[in-house]
Amino acid sequence: MKNDLIPSSPLTVNWAITNKCNFACNHCYSRSDTKEELDLEMVFTILDTLSRAKVFSINFGGGEPLLRKNLLEIARRASDLGFAVSMNSNGYLIDRDMAGKLKEAGFAKVGISIDSPQPDIHDNFRGIKGSHARAIEALKYLKGAGIETSISSVICKINIEDVDGLVEMALSSEVANINFHNFKCSGLGFANKDILDLTPLEWRDFYIRAIELRKKVNGLRISLEDPIISQLGETGEETLVKGSVCGKLSLNIKSNGDITPCGFIPIVVGNICTDDLMKIWNESPVLHKMRNKEPQGKCLSCDSKSDCLGGCTARTLALTGDMNNPDPHCWKNES
């Protein structure tokens, strides 16, 4: 599964700037990650490194990035260096004043995690009472500050019957985009997969409905990140590569500087503080393997293999131990 359009450097870096969090989500992938944080001087040095590498955008996450005490200072430095700066947040700490500060710090986009249009279901999933209401309010404050907003929803058992409700919530919140994230099986996501994850046929039915909504809903982008939708003759957002984008267009930096292909793949390929970023990007055996997956099993005879490239690498690795295996969410040959 050769992938020829790998850019000369990562276009996007997803950076877990802290792993501190004020929530207790049932699917959290970073709960057991290191709590070590780099000091501000090292963070600025890393920003310079990323700038020299011509990285286009930086997306801050975690954990909850707003629990990093000098996040605004870090974002301002990143913005001044020319990066497109964004953040994923649970929204709990964003009031009108904070929204204004985020705008001043250079945040162009902020995504808020909301997993159900039903407040009690979201609050239970995220482990914090009142978190749904605070998230909706955060979207209003961010929009008022002039920041482009989006909603991120992890599709799983708690919301599969209310996909239309998620879209209606996004429309009423006047966000630019709703991201339907496929359920990953990392961290607590693996521990709780039997009660939260969908069956392959349920994933097929979900994507049929989501694609239908994407075609008919106006005024809202509906993003589907999963390569396996090529089975339905569809693709995700326009991208330079096929299959998973992790390790091809983007890299992940952990709070201690460790580099992984994505936040859901716990394979460390180097450390941004001590290793040469471009050498990692160009020579890492792990990244090479991800970019040149060898089809196995039912992928060998699949008509969609040149677009899907085996599906989500993170999920496949977590559930089968071999990134070359077929994606466990794939419904091909299911009945």
Task: Chart the SSEs and their pairings.
Elements: E1 12-16, H1 40-52, E2 57-61, H2 71-80, E3 84-89, H3 96-105, E4 107-113, H4 119-126, H5 131-145, E5 148-154, H6 163-173, E6 177-181, H7 188-191, H8 193-196, H9 200-216, E7 221-224, E8 250-253, E9 258-260, E10 270-271, H10 277-283, H11 285-291, H12 305-308, H13 313-320
Parallel strand pairs: 1-2, 1-8, 2-3, 3-4, 4-5, 5-6, 6-7
Antiparallel strand pairs: 8-9, 9-10
Give the structural class: alpha/beta
Please report the distance between the alpha carbons of the first and last residues. Answer: 27 Å
Uncertain runs with pLDDT below 50, 5 residues or more?
A: none
Number of strands: 10
Quick one: overall form?
globular
pLDDT averaged residue by residue: 91
Instruction: Summarize the helix and strand pattern as letters.
Output: EHEHEHEHHEHEHHHEEEEHHHH
Spatial order of the strands forming the largest sheet: 7-6-5-4-3-2-1-8-9-10
Strand content: 5-15%
Q: Please, how many helices?
A: 13
In helices, the fraction of residues equals 25-40%
Radius of gyration based on Cα positions: 19 Å
Query: What profile does the largest beta sheet have?
Result: 10 strands, mixed
How would you explain this protein's 3D organization?
It contains 13 helices and 10 strands. It has helices at about 40-50, 70-80, 95-105, 120-125, 130-145, 165-175, 190, 195, 200-215, 275-285, 285-290, 305-310, 315-320, and strands spanning about 10-15, 55-60, 85-90, 105-115, 150-155, 175-180, 220-225, 250-255, 260, 270. Helix 2 (about 70-80) runs parallel beside helix 3 (about 95-105). About 45% of the residues are buried. The model has no long low-confidence stretch (mean pLDDT about 90).
